[in-house]
Design brief:
Layout lengths: L5 E5 L4 H12 L3 E6 L2 H9 L6 E5 L5 H15 L5 E4 L14 H29 L3 E6 L12 H20 L5 E8 L19 H7 L7 H13 L4 E4 L1 H12 L1 H20 L1
Parallel strand pairs: 1-2, 1-4, 2-3, 4-5, 5-6, 6-7
């Protein structure tokens, strides 16, 4: 009897993580979910085939917690892990001078350290199941060009992009594929929150007022499936992300003017 392929998804309790879980489960994979939100993971499990999912509550900023989560998952899945989706993330908006130290530390810890810890913990499991295994990092279009009013978030996503490129080289001889997802604004619960503690307007309202489109988590999940089975390094999702990827490379002067205009527009909206 063939051993069922297994994916572990951090941030699997909602949004992109939930959509990735559903997409891979549809193909018959065993799905491991990691999140602080136990109720959210339970909701995700309800969408998956019975008996082929496992949830483990942990904080991605806990390096030892990663080892425990993957070890228990491997025991539940039959001993193998084929894909680790480094997906957990938090958002922080507003100008840099508005951010508190606690907010800055939290986003760097989750979006950068959590991804690094996840990669380090995943390596031995992915090497064991190679070739064909994959580390899948959730980046952002904000990792192509610095986005005003999301400076720290953007910095962490540049770092995720750099980590992905470095590990693509480091792990090539181990037979492990390393990929990133680079979506634009995604319609997830993260957008329902204010950008920071000083503001009350939700990030969703700000995005829509600026005329940006929202992609669906399912679009990102489809890109995740293709990324885990394809050769491309960065997988761009959404119109805004495609425009940012193109302009940052080929039209940097125009991109600079565009993001300055975005900042001016945002300030005018907040002054109303």
């Amino acid at each position: 009897m063939a051993v069922r392929k297994t994916i572990f998804i951090s941030g699997g309790g909602s949004g992109i993580g939930r959509a990735i879980a559903v997409r891979f489960a549809r193909e018959g994979w065993f799905v491991g979910l990691g999140d602080l939100d136990q109720a959210g993971m339970a909701e995700t499990e309800k969408l998956l085939p019975g008996g082929y999912a496992y949830s483990h509550a942990f904080d991605v900023t806990d390096r030892a917690g990663w080892d425990e989560a993957l070890r228990i998952l491997a025991r539940a899945s039959g001993g193998r892990i084929d894909v680790v989706a480094n997906n957990a993330g938090v958002a922080l908006g507003g100008e840099l001078v508005e951010a508190s130290t606690d907010e800055i530390d939290r986003i760097v810890d989750v979006n950068l350290c959590g991804v690094i810890y996840g990669a380090q913990a995943a390596h031995p499991w992915l090497k064991e199941s190679a070739p064909g295994s994959c580390l899948l990092n959730t980046g952002s279009a904000a990792g192509f060009y610095g986005v005003p009013a999301t400076a720290v978030y953007s910095a962490t996503k540049f770092a995720v992009r750099g980590l992905t490129e470095a590990l693509d080289a480091e792990w090539a001889e181990d037979g492990i594929a390393v990929r990133s997802l680079m979506p634009s604004y995604i319609d997830t619960p993260l957008l329902d929150r204010p950008p920071n503690a000083r503001q009350s307007t939700s990030m969703r309202d700000l995005v829509l007022q600026m005329g940006r489109e929202l992609s669906t988590p399912e679009e990102v999940a489809e890109a995740a499936w293709r990324a885990a089975h394809g050769d491309k390094l960065h997988w761009v999702v959404g119109k805004t992300a495609r425009q940012a990827a193109f302009a940052s490379r080929w039209l940097p002067g125009r991109m600079r003017q565009t993001v300055r205009a975005m900042m001016a527009q945002r300030r005018r909206m907040l002054e109303r």
